[in-house]
Amino acid sequence: SQMSKKRGLSFDDKRSRLLELFHERQDFFQLKELEKIASKEKGIVLQSVKEVLTSLVDDSLVETEKIGTSVYFWSFPSKALTQRQNKLNELKKCIEQLNGKLSAIDEEIGLKQMKEEDAESAERLLKDLSVIEAEIQEYQKKISSHSDFGPGVINELNKKKSAIIEEANKYTDNIFSIKSWCKSKFGVDEAQLNKQFNIPEDMDYF
After folding, report:
1. CB–CB of 205/172 below 8 Å?
2. Cα–Cα dist 166/161, whole Å
3. Is residue 67 classed exposed, middle or buried when 0-12, 13-18 and 19+ CB atoms within 10 A define those classes?
4. Distances (CA, A) of 62 to 58, 118, 174
5. pLDDT per residue over 81-98, tens digit each?
6. Full-prediction pTM beyond 0.90?
7. DSSP code of 149?
8. Interval 39-61: pLDDT, tens
9. What is the phi-psi region of residue 67: left when phi exceeds 0, alpha when psi lies from -120 to 50, beta otherwise?
10. For burial by CB atoms within 10 Å, which of 20, 21, 30, 102 has the most?
11. pLDDT above 70 covers what percent of the chain?
12. What biological-process GO terms show up in the record (predicted)?
């Protein structure tokens, strides 16, 4: 039935459909008017239109302005496209910065090992690693939440993501090397090392 179809829409589906409505009409709407049209033409439950609209406004995909005593909403295709492109560029930039940080840390570990680094340097590098790993996870989440990008864009971001994971795995390799070096140099056991440097017991490759 039509009702069950309406109930079956995910929040993202509702967002896409409401944005589609704005782009098809290319007009200015008040909330009441939008609720009627969206439920009738796009199958979005009337009561949920406001919440969906608010999320689009929060993401700058829909514009809003109070004119006199009324609040109007609108969105034209070029605006949405620009916003998405800006977001995409922002994500790409962040990925490049992370790649740069990982390379610098990799290089630093290599140099330190050549000079027989001490436990203090190892601790600092391990802290750097946990920060980088957290940042990578955060940007992976951001990338996957932008499912409205085209397949080509998602593919490109996934390639970047794979490259970052590869870098992180190289880094994990280095951590294992540092651990075994510390064990042989200072005769410390693994559990103690893990505790001292806050290395998770189950640390492994991505």
Report:
1. yes
2. 9
3. exposed
4. 8, 55, 47
5. 677 667 767 777 877 887
6. no
7. S
8. 999 999 999 999 999 999 998 88
9. beta
10. 102
11. 61
12. reciprocal meiotic recombination
Question: What are the start-end ranges of the H helices in the chain?
Answer: 2-7, 11-25, 31-41, 49-58, 77-114, 119-145, 151-186, 190-196
Q: Could you give the CA distance from residue 119 to residue 186 in angstroms, rounded to a whole number?
A: 9
Question: What is the distance between the alpha carbons of residues 99 and 104, in angstroms, rounded to a whole number?
Answer: 9
Q: What are phi and psi of 43, to 5 degrees?
A: 65, 25
- 108-147 burial by CB neighbour count: b if 16+ within 10 A, else e? bbeebeeeebeeebbbebbebbeebbebbeebbeebeeee
| CA terminus-to-terminus distance, the chain | 45
The answer on pLDDT for 30 being more than 50 is: yes
SS3 per residue for 33-78: HHHHHHHHHCCCCHHHHHHHHHHHHHCCCCEEEEECCEEEEECCHH
Fold of 11-75: Arc Repressor Mutant, subunit A (1.10.10)
Task: Look at strands 63-67 and 70-74 and give their pairing.
Answer: antiparallel
